[in-house]
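Course assignment 3, question 2. Fill in each field.
Student: A.L.
Task: Predict the tertiary structure for the chain below.
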Amino acid sequence: AVGLAAAAYFACNFILVGLAVALHGRAPVLATLYRALPYQAFVTLALLSAAPLVVVVMDRSVLLVLLFLLPLTAIYANAAMSLNREYQALHDQLTGLPNRTLLLRRTADALTAAGRSGGRCGFLLLDLDRFKEVNDTLGHLLGDGLLQVIAYRLARSVRPGDLVARLGGDEFAVLLPAVRTADVAAEVAARLRAALAEPVRLEGMSFEIEASVGIALYPDDGATVEVLLQRADVAMYLAKDRRTGVETYLARADHYSPARLSLLGDLRRGIDRGEFELHYQPKVFLASGRTAGMEALLRWRHPHRGLRRTGLGLPAVPAVLRRLAQGRSTVAARHGRLLRPARVAGCASDAAPRGDCGVTCSIAGRRCSHPATRLGLLYYTRSPRGPQPAHQEGVRCILMRPAAEAAPTATQLPCGG
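Answer field:
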């Protein structure tokens, strides 16, 4: 009878506590009970094992039972401190959402379960658009309040069993342990963006938040947690570039392959070793056949692959200077070296015909705003090419940036000549 009473007590307490925890955390009930079973069983067994001691002590004097209060209080306080430390280690302090550690752990469990059942999982990566402007303009205190509102909305916009986590800064992730198709994941992403689209009022001001969401699916896009995270990140930046808001991972749009990274390393070393050559392409008037000028094109003579004109994972990077590692600031700092007047002069004096013609050089707009590139362009425009003073170099810089960013570069270049 005592054993049955103990079992009934444990079952009722375990189910009720587990159900409350699952409902509070919007987690699956069965998964929550499964994870809590070892801990709850150990605690219940420890408490029940003290029952014979309580009976013996009460046989002597009821007042002696008070001696159990101090050790039991110490055990309870230690257990509460342990649970609090575990919660802090697995949750974001600002928003209360699960952090990266808990997200990766739950994702690994979901992938394992999906692998056994043959199901699919979804992984969403969400980044707030232009959130940095809020922090820079109004301060981090208001930005933190905005993040708390966003976290609350995201947590209330997912399905029961889905997990919303904050990875850091203005980046969030959502784990969908069970999805049938990519359309289901896209519907969840659209619901998240709709929840964020409602204006947020803080400190008497109204904010409209937009987000870009990238989707990766298991096992379609990756079989491990790290691969899913990387490919959801690729899809998220694709959504930013296309301004579509939501994008599913596309292998053909993923340029971040190991071969590309290796080629980027070769590219940087090639610039330092002088493996790039300037070739000149004439521009001719069709009516008269007279040469109007020359366009400087950059070619890469790779030590193992030979003279490269097209991509190998870097589309047209070795072929045209304006495409030289576009978006790579580490390579952009070397633009000044590529535009050194002595090197341009040496190639141009041999390749360009005598007469009034200039050399044009196309450079990506984002690189024109880089200080090192701008300095190289100024040197380039100021230096004479060879002994004939009539030969001047002209630089055509394609500026596809906002006017406020392009103005300093546009005003400096004419001053250089």
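Instructor remarks: Residues 1-89 form one domain. The first strand starts at residue 121 and ends at 128.
Grade: pending
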